[in-house]
């Protein structure tokens, strides 16, 4: 049996049936990290909240709009906002890579040999019959 202090926050909160609180913890943590000028880690936290629910993606609208506005004015990118976006991209890319490995899709996608027709999944029989 695992000890409670060894589990991640989201596992504990999901076990206690409070998934929205886990979202709030990571969202507040991401904003707090950005406020403490740890932009890359804040972007990672915020990207994890967008994996839990789609609505925190609106938090990224501000940094992206400022990044675009600064680029249009000065033709330079502000490193702070670029770090937030890079952290979010790293979080999404890392989660995508982990999900490919865990689901086994990386083996199925990147093998060069095709599976023989006999080993493919057969169609399931119909579960209802039309009676005239």
Produce a short descriptive summary:
By secondary structure, the chain is mostly helical. The chain contains six helices and no strands.
Q: Termini distance?
A: 58 Å
Strand runs, count = 0
Instruction: Domain count, please report it.
Output: 1
- Beta-strand portion reads under 5%
Structural class: mainly alpha
Main beta sheet: none
Query: What fraction, in percent, of the residue positions are helical?
Result: 55-70%
How would you summarize the topology of this molecule?
Blueprint: H1 9-15, H2 19-35, H3 39-52, H4 61-74, H5 79-103, H6 105-110
In words, what does this structure look like?
It is a single chain. The chain is mostly helical and 132 residues long. The chain has one domain. Helices cover 63% and strands 0% of the residues. The protein is built from 6 helices and no strands. The chain has helices at residues 9-15, 19-35, 39-52, 61-74, 79-103, 105-110. α1 (9-15) packs antiparallel against α2 and α4 (61-74) crosses α5 (79-103). The longest helix is centred in the last third of the chain and has 25 residues, at 79-103. The termini are far apart.
């Amino acid at each position: 049996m695992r000890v409670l202090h060894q589990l991640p926050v989201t596992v504990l909160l999901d076990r206690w049936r409070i998934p929205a609180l886990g979202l709030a913890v990571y969202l507040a943590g991401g904003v707090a990290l950005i406020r403490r000028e740890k932009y890359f880690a804040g972007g990672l936290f915020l990207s994890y909240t967008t994996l839990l629910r789609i609505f925190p993606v609106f938090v990224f609208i501000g940094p992206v709009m400022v990044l675009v506005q600064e680029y249009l004015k000065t033709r330079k990118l502000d490193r702070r906002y670029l770090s937030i976006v890079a952290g979010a991209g790293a979080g999404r890319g890392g989660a995508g890579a982990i999900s490919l490995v865990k689901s086994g899709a990386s083996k199925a996608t990147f093998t060069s040999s095709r599976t023989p027709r006999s080993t493919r999944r057969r169609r399931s029989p119909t579960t209802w019959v039309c009676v005239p």
